[in-house]
Amino acid sequence: MDLATILAFAAAFFVFAASPGPDNMTIVARTISSGAASGIAYGAGTVVGILIFLMLAAFGLSIVAAKMAIVMTLLRYGGAAYLIWMGVKLWTAVPVVPELQPVSGRRGLLTIFATGVALNLGNPKMPLFYVALLPNVVGASLTPAHLGILVAVILAVEIVVIGGHVLLAGRARSLLRTPRIVRRVNRAAGGVMIGAGVAVVATR
């Protein structure tokens, strides 16, 4: 795998990761509503789901994963239901300025992380992405060295994408100074999360 191939994979994956969609919308909404830790926790969950599919692809199991329709559908619907539920909670929440708003505890962050994992494992586009791309990147064989390079590229791209979304959302969060503004932003973020949940269900 030469440098040109690695850069081509990085570019393709960046477009895939940075494209507007339920994951990025949820990262922004979680950061605005509950802080950077919440957005990062969800983002980390999405990365784990992405890497799981990479490992499946590395062992030639992407096609099998793509055919696990029932399991993937259950994961997708479960994660979507959680997003919608959280969106409704945000919409109806009593407005609290960020300085006084409690930070999610470890259990809350783990739940957010698990949601990110589940939604990505239920994403039917992930195995198809790898089935279409990997043969053109590594050819017929994928060595441990190649796998390590791909993991490093994915992590680097996701750090940029997730970090960028969290940073921008964090700056928006810093503008929340009155309950009236917080209420409006909570409802906007809640609407985004509800929309993300609906979008996940609508994905085919």
Explain what the structure shows.
This protein is mainly α and 204 residues long. It has one domain (3-202). It is built from nine helices and no strands. Helix 2 (22-34) packs antiparallel against helix 9 and helix 3 (36-58) crosses helix 7 (125-138). The protein is globular and about 55 Å long. The two termini are 33 Å apart. The mean pLDDT is 78.
Brief descriptors of the model:
204 residues, mainly alpha, 9 helices, globular
Query: What is the string of SSEs from the N terminus onward?
Result: HHHHHHHHH
The general outline is globular
- By secondary-structure content and strand pairing, the structural class works out as mainly alpha
| Poorly predicted ranges | none
Radius of gyration over alpha carbons? Answer: 18 Å
The domain count comes to 1
Mean pLDDT metric = 78
Tell me the β content. under 5%
Measured between the Cα atoms of the first and last residue, the distance is 33 Å
Helix content: over 70%
Number of strands: 0
Output the number of helix runs.
9
The description of the largest β-sheet is:
none
